Amino acid sequence: MLPRYTTILSFVAVMVCLPIGLAPANAQWSDSARPASRHLVQTSDAVVYTQPPIGSGVLFPSSWWSQGGTVYGQYVWDDFTLSSAQSITEIRWEGGYDPAKAGAGGPVQDFTLAIHASIPGGSEPDVVNPPLATYQTAGKAGETAAGTFDGTTLYDYHYALPAAFPAAAGQKYWVLIAAMQGGEPDWGLAVGSGGDGQHYRKIAAPGSVRYARVSGDAAFSLLGRPLASYNVYLPVVRR
């Protein structure tokens, strides 16, 4: 007869070897199995901020012409504030090409993404100083058709940041999303909801640059994970 502790160890070994049947944290959903939201891709990170698209054909122009330079561009910033400190790891957005321009800009060649601080008071992004972080997607950022609304075909985009951006709690930041095109720019961000109902815009033309706050939320989401925090315990000195 085996000793009792040998029997217990054998039982534990069997339990450890049993499969638990859980999918990996970064598993991709197939079209037939994915949840109802067409924007959701299961990852180890969670959506920490979102202004989801409302399904409108209206676009906020945010693109520039690679041949004509940035002086012919229009740019959109929208703000976000997080209730807790987060490491932002991915940016997702929705946009499309203005059908009234009949493809004048051609396909997107690249996206510029940037995160800016606010000016004192938080009413605008600080565009005088360099952004806190800048990224180039080096391509179309996974452009995927999301549907046609009022004659405008919208596309989903995503970009995983090469290094997580640490966002502090309660601090207003501004995200810039702008496409680069090979012709007269015609790409814009889709309309979202859930923000403060406004975004910030720059319109550039030879000899003229104009900035303004404009009505409407842009459609974008941020993925991330909580910033790690640690408790430090000091020894108690008794006298």
CATH class: Mainly Beta
- Gross morphology: globular
- Overall residue-averaged pLDDT value: 81
* Uncertain residue ranges: 1-43, 230-234
Biggest pleated sheet:
8 strands, antiparallel
Counted beta strands:
15
Query: What fold name stands as the CATH topology?
Result: Jelly Rolls
Distance between the termini: 58 Å
Helix content: under 10%
Strand content: over 45%
How many domains make up the 3D coordinates? 1
Q: Which assembly state applies to the chains in this document?
A: single chain
Number of helices: 1
Rg, alpha carbons: 23 Å
Structural class of the helices, strands and pairings?
mainly beta
Give the name of the CATH architecture: Sandwich
Order of helices and strands: HEEEEEEEEEEEEEEE
Word description of this protein:
Residues 1-43 and 230-234 have low confidence and may be disordered. 31% of the residues are buried. The longest helix has 14 residues, at 4-17. 6% of the residues lie in helices and 47% in strands. The chain has one helix and 15 strands; from the N terminus they run αβββββββββββββββ. It has a single domain (43-215), classed as Jelly Rolls, CATH 2.60.120. It is globular and about 50 Å long. The strands form two sheets. Strands 1, 2, 5, 8, 9, 11, 14 and 15 form an eight-stranded antiparallel beta sheet that branches. Strands 3, 4, 6, 7, 10, 12 and 13 form a seven-stranded mixed beta sheet that branches. By secondary structure, the chain is mainly beta. The protein has one helix at residues 4-17, and strands spanning 46-51, 59-61, 63-65, 69-81, 86-97, 108-116, 133-136, 144-149, 152-167, 172-181, 187-192, 198-205, 208-215, 217-218, 220-226. A hairpin with a 2-residue loop joins strand 12 and strand 13 (208-215).
